[in-house]
Structures are given as C-alpha cells and as structure tokens.
Amino acid sequence: MQPIDLSHGLGRREVRAITCRFLDLHRQRLERIYEDLHSTKSDVLSVLPLLLHLNHPMLPGYVSGSTPAGIPDFQVTPDLARIAKGMFRGFNDTHRAQPRYVIHGLYVMGSVGSMAYSRRSDLDFWVCHDPNLNETELEQLRSKLEKIEVFAADHGLEVHFFAMNLERFRAGQSEALSKESSGSTQHILLLEEFYRTAIHIAGRYPLWWIVPVAEEANYEAFCQHQIGRGIISLDEFIDFGGLQRIPPDEFFGTAHWQLFKGIGSPYKSVLKILLVEAYAREYPDIHWLCNDIKSAVFSGQVEQLDPYLLVYRRIAAYLSQRDELERLELARRCFYFKVDRSLTKQRSRTASNWQLDLLEQLTQDWDWDKTTLISLDNRRGWKVRQVIQERDRLVRELTRSYKVLVEFAQRFGDSSKINPVELKLLGRKLYASLERRPGKIDSINPGISTDLTEPMLSLHRTGQYWSLYLGAVNPQQTKNEQPLKQSEILTELIAWLHLNGILAQDSRLRPFAQNLLGETELLALRQAVAKFLPDRNAVFRSTLRALGRPARLRQCGLFINPEGMQVSGSPIITDSYDPLCFGHKKKNLINSLEQILCTNWGEVHCARYEGGQGLVEALVKYLTLSLGSAGTPHLPELEVHCGDKLYGNSIARRVDEIFRHVGQVFGPEGSGGRCRYILPLANTHYLIQRQGEGFGWQEISSQKELYQLMAEPMDQFSPLVPDPRAFPGSPLTSICNHAEEGCLQLFYLRQRACIDLYFMDENGSIFYQKVTETDPQFVLARQHRFLSSIQQWQGLTSNDAMEALLQEPPRYFRMELSGQGQWLAIPMAPPESELDSNYLPLRLMVLSNKQLVLSCGDVEFSSAVHGKQLFQAIVEHILALRQGRKDYPIYLTAVQPQSLDSSDAWHTMRLLQYRRQIETQLNRIMQQLTQA
Question: Are 377 and 343 in contact (CB under 8 A)?
C-alpha cells in the first residue's frame, strides 16, 4: 500500500483515501469480533445500529415515536435486513425514512478486535447525539439506550452505551463520575484512547483521522482551513478535538481513576497506568500511540497496528530504558492475563488463532519456559498464598505508578481543575479498598483465582494471638510453618476466611486453643459468622452514591465470649435476671466481645473488647457509625451471637435489647442526639451521650456520683433515659419518662421517716434531695415557694417577655407503687403557698462582689458585717424567734442575685444545689447550738 501523497496538500481525493484506509482497518477488527462470537451474539452486535436508527414498537429500545433516533447515511444492507427480520418476527420496515438524524456517530472502543479481546469482554459504545437535544429528549434517549443494553444482555452480550454531547465534551464538561465513566478526571487521555482503539460503526467519521501528525500541534487552525476550503464537510465528519495540549493535572485525575478501576480489574489497570506514566515522562512533548496508528495508515503500513500490542511495546520500551526489569516482567504477566488465552492447553485450528500465534511469539521473545506458562495458565486455580502474593504485587505497582503521576501533577499542574467531589469519591474508594488498618478485612482476590477453598486449616492460640495455618498442623509443627494470618480477634480470622472464599461449608477448621475452644464451639461460631455475612461479594461492594455520603454502618455483628466463659455457682433458670448484673454479686457475664462492622463504603472492620467497659465501647462505636451527626441517621442490621450452652441465649438477648433500645432512643424516632442514656453494668452505671461528631461514655462508680451527674445543668433539653433495668425498686425510671421540655416538675416519695424529693428542671436534669420531714403538705409548700421564686427570676432574665409571662407553673407528682409493682406518678394540685402568720421568709441574696446577704423577715445579715460568723448569726436570730420546739429544719425561701443576670449560675439545678449547700450549713449550726 502506497503512502498518502501530501506533497500538494490535502485534497478531496486524499480525504477519501485516508477515510477508506481507516474504515478498512476497522472492518478487519470487526471481522475478528464476529469470528469470535457465536451466531446469536454476532447478530445482536449487527442490529445495534439499526435499533438506534429506528423507532419501531416491534424493536427493542422502543420508548415512543418521538424518541431521538436516526443515524446519517446509515444503510440497511441485505444481510442486516435478513438478520433483523429473523430476530424480530413480523418486522419488515427496515427502510423507513427518518424525519431527522439525531445520532451523529456510533463507535465501539476498548479491546474490541485486538489481541486483548475475548468472549468475556464487554463492549463500550460512544453514542454521539445532537447537542441541541432538550432534557426530555435526552431522558428518552437514555431510556432507549438502557432498553437496548437489556436486550443485548438477555442474549449474552454485555454492552454499555455512553451518550455523548460533543459540544460539552470538547469544552471538558464530561458526564458525572460513575462506575463506567471517569467524569472530569481525564479528558485528553480518554480521547487518545478513543482515537487509538475506537471502531467506527455508523454515522460520521472522526475529523482527527484526516489531520496529518505533523499538523497535530496546529489542529484547530488546520481543520478550520480545510473546512473553509470545502475539503471537509461537517455533515460527513465529527470533530472530537485534537491532542495538542494536555493539562498536567489530568495525570493526577487519571492516577486516581486507574487505581480505582484497578481494585476490580488490576491487570488491565496496571497496563493503563504504566502507559500514562510513560506519557507523563515525555511531557510536554508526548508521543501519542494513536499518532503511531495514524502515521501507519498514512504511510500504508497497517500490518502491525493491534492497539493492545502497541500499548505493551510502548510500556516495554519505557521500562527497559529505565532498566526496571521487575516491573517489565509484571507488565508482561498483566498483558498475558489481559489477552486471556492459554498457550499450554490443547487448541483447535480456528480463525481466532491469530491471537495465540501472536502471543506465542511474544512469550518466546520473553524467554518464558513451559513451567512458567503452565503456572500462569492455571491462574484460575491458584490458592491463597499465591493469590495474596500476586495481589500484593499488583497493588504495589498500581500504588507506585499512582505516586509517580501524583508527584508529576503536583509539580507541573493544578489539580484544583478536577472536580473536587469526584476526587473525594475516588479517594474514599481507594481508602476503603486499599488502606490497611488493624482489624480491617481485605478482599485478597480481585479476579485472580476462581477457587481459594481449602479442605483443612488449623487454628492455634499462642499468647494473645490466634494463628491460622494451612493443612493439619499440630503445635510442634508450628515452629517450622509460617502462619497464613494472625490476629488477636478470633472472629476476624473466621470472617477473613469466609469472605475470601477460603473456608467452605465442608472445610475443617481444627482448633488448638489450650482448652479455651473446642471444635464444636468453633463450628457454631463459623456458622454464626456465615449467617451474619451470607453474601460475600456484597460486603465489599459500594456505590459512588454511598461514597458521596459519610461512612455508615450497613451491618453490625456482635460475638460474645467467642472463646467460652466460666461461671461459678448454680444456674439461674428464670428469664427475669440480668446477665450483666448476675447474682447477688452483680457479676457481668460478658468476658469479651468481638464486633464485625460492615460499612456502606464496602469496608469490614473487626474489633475486640473486654468486659463491661468493652461492651460500652462497642455500643458507642455502633452509635457513632450509625447515627453520627453527619449525614442521615440510619440503624443497621444487627446480629448478636453468644455460644455459651447455659447462658448464651440470655446474654445475646440482653445485649440485643440494649443495642436496639439505645439505637431507638438516639435515632430519628426517639429523643434524638440530646438525651443522656444510663446503662447499668455489674456494680456500676455508664452514661452515654453525644460528643462532637459521635458519641462518648462516662463511667459512674457510685450512687453519689450518679446523683451528681443527673443534676448537672444542661444548656438545652437533654432528658435522662435509663435502660429499662437501670433502677430496680426505684421510681427514677418512671420519673425520667415524664421529662418535658420547658417544664419544672417535682416528684415526691413519702418514706417512714423522711420524704424523697426529685426535682426535674426544664432541660430534663434531676436533682435528688432527702428531707427529714414526714408531712408532705408542709414540705411541698416550702418547695413551691422556692420553685416559684426561681421561675420569677428566670422570667425576669428571659429575653422573651411573652414567654416569661406565659410560663407554666411547676407540676407536682406523688410516686407510689401499683399492684403490679410498677411506679406511678400521680399528679397533684400545686400546694398552698400561704403559711401561718408566725412564718418568716428566709431569703439569700448573692451580690455582684460575691458577698452574701441573708434576710429573715425585715432583718438582714451580710457577710460584709458578720464575716465567717454570718450563718451562726442568722441561726441564733431564728432560734430566738422560735417558740416551743426549736430544732426543726431551716429552709431557704429564695436564692436570688442582686441583678437580672442570666448567667449559668442561676440555672435551676445550680440554685437547688446552692440551696442545699446553704441549708446544710445552717442546719448543722442549729444542731450544734440546740445540743450545746
């Protein structure tokens, strides 16, 4: 074939010749595809352009008669008409005229017709449409394409259509990032791949075809000149743009994208990222591979133009020049696996053997012996150790090239031009899939082998670690064996085996665990993990939509006492006991807890916790990942397992009850993030509440500390929510259930020699006080006067006058037990605040300089005058006024500031605590004086 003669410039004859040469080259590649497909798939591929050209109710892809369709200059050949009539019974309208031609071009790109194409390869089509389509028309076109994809899939052919707006593409406005689309992360590099691999199916021809390589740097001006001369018609050609300029930041985006794709298809991605690395080394004068193809077409030398073979040879030249022979060997392996043809298995002489012939020649040039080829051809049967080694090699190579490209882009470019949302999505996927962290389970087999199952494994406990060994390995043999995997978390090893397909249902896992764990118990644990994770592939799967949101739990598995437990004493046979407060010593029966967490980012994390505190830490982790403040709250699937024969069901039921109740309380249907949850465990309590973006906990070691914590002032409504088993025999749970925002309440319980008072303030805090009086009316009247004075001052300090005016008076309740043993809060009318004529109010005023003034009736006593003797002076005055019995308690009627200061010092809880402190001092002095 003679070279195209451009000595007199480009004319119509040269344009026709170049176009014909490209079409002949593409026709050869298409014929290779048809040869490799069986008749049904071949027919489906043949009718795809017809389905885009016509809208007909009898054809797949029909949406409506007005759906965008029509390909310019598309001709229905007799063979195509025959295939269409055979596939679509009754269809005979193959020559219908189109009112307009909306599909300007149809192209298939990728490995089609190359060495790397196989029957398992999918087909990616660019569907270039009229850029003036409105949104309704675009939606109809997308629907049509989706229906055609389904039709092809039903016949065993996987195709993907990408609707392409040429004007947006040329302006760099790519489609949004998706599983198949790289979004804005690459443009020129994607275009170069298109020019290198795309096959013209129907419609207009790429204008790039006819631009000589020497004119690439002047692409736009050259094209405009030829259009102006009438040599080129845009009714015949379509202009995707030139490759004269590539922004350096595109290498940054491409590095992310190829690493992202490499998670599922590492061999293909290693080749692509190595090619991009080679291009980056040539920047800014990049020698594009697609230009090699165009030069060969212009010169008439089209015999060695396989796109994938060109990719390998460019990579090989690049790595050889750098003397990186180990990387070159890996590139060869990736190329071999991408071709996906076996050289050591018997083959029949068919038309498709051109791939094997080329591959055989290549492997001879690489000096690969038969042993190497046998091993590579048996890749689908590789077992776990070999797969892990291969996976690590691939990840190292992808990561190395990724770092090279990122450093290049940072040195030469501006990565801010890439959509930051897309970079975040890619970064999150890479973090979720490739980042190695303690307790994180990795997928070790990205399509390398098809069967990793092992018939026998051994599990040994050494110190704090569990170790996995392949085969039957006894303790003496472990000294000479390398463990497959080690962890402190037993369920991590079991889940790792299960999720990576190493542990089949009939596999034997034999424990050597120093009497901690028998084979029967281990089998039950295996079954529990498999039940919790039934779909191995779905666990590691994530969508870009999910990656666009904060990490959230999809599943939470809790495995309690996986190594067994020992409990002394006789078993308890009732269901009413609490296994977390077991027996008269209130023992917690949870020795250890292991947690498996699966997130919407496709991550699986395992953690181990010890004892009661560990249970709380696991609960807080569960809440943070489920209901953290960022994103939409969502409670995951929950599974709890405890294999103990005697107490397992009770323990699992109780833990499940706690997690579900706490999740309900903090969830969107409960009190939300503002409540404070009280959980009893053994001889202590824990307070769980929001902290920043997540949740935190606080241990409460005594009843005194519990009451202090319950009385802490809150700056917003934060009700206390006890676990249903938190306060047996106490009215506190019933009292907490009455919390109401903005409402001041007093609950009292009459005892034999005293009265228990529970003050609940407007934000749900509870102040407890015991008074040594037995007359409720007398006690409540004094409390009412004090609470009313608080409300009066809070009303004066409020910024909302109407709110202060309409403030609800305190509510009062009497606590009593029902016949069924449940605490009831009986509403009471507000007590009469009128006291007998001999009663003198006792008020405390706190001045701005922290001086105290106590007034009894009209007489005032101040710390400025009396100093440290202030309290004794007022007590002596009160005793002098009393007649008869003098030692009954002294009560403050009010505590008030000097000014209308609304600081936290005048919070209801603070005033109640301050009152108790002052009253305690006054009554202690009174006892000393009356007993003297």
Answer: yes
Closest CA relative to residue 116, chosen from 23, 40, 193? 193
Task: Pull the structure tokens for residue 219.
Answer: 């692409």
User: Which CB contacts under 8 angstroms, 24+ apart, belong to 922-929?
Assistant: 922/871, 922/874, 922/875, 922/890, 923/889, 923/890, 925/871, 925/872, 925/875, 926/875, 926/878, 926/879, 926/887, 926/890, 927/887, 929/872, 929/875, 929/876, 929/879
Helix segments in 555-673, DSSP class H: 611-627, 648-666
Collapsing DSSP to helix, strand or coil, 681 comes out as: strand
pLDDT digits 0-9 by tens, 761-779: 999 999 999 998 888 988 9
| Token output for 572 | 């308890």
Instruction: Give the span between the Cα atoms of 1 and 362, in whole angstroms.
Output: 26
Cα–Cα distance for residue pair 614/641, rounded to 1 Å: 16
Give the tens place of pLDDT for each residue, 103-144: 999 999 999 889 988 877 899 999 999 999 999 999 999 999
pLDDT score at 573? 45
Two tokens at 409? 């882009």
User: Can you read off the two tokens belonging to residue 29?
Assistant: 């590649």
- Do 392 and 222 contact (CB within 8 A), yes or no? no
Contact 704, 643 (CB under 8 A): no
- Kindly provide the residue ranges of all beta strands, DSSP E only, lying in 506-591, ordered along the sequence: 508-512, 553-560
pLDDT tens digits for 345-399? 866 655 458 889 999 999 999 999 999 999 999 999 999 999 999 999 999 998 8
Half-sphere exposure of 365 (CA within 13 A, CB side): 9
Is the confidence at residue 244, as pLDDT, over 60?
yes
Write the CA distances from 11 to 25, 225, 238, 710, integer angstroms.
Answer: 21, 12, 18, 91
- Name the maximum alpha-carbon separation found in the chain: 132
Provide the whole-model pTM: 0.85
**Domain-wise residue ranges, the chain:** 10-245, 247-431, 453-539, 556-699, 702-835, 838-932
For residue 3, what is the DSSP state?
P
- Rounded Cα gap, residues 607 and 489, in angstroms: 7
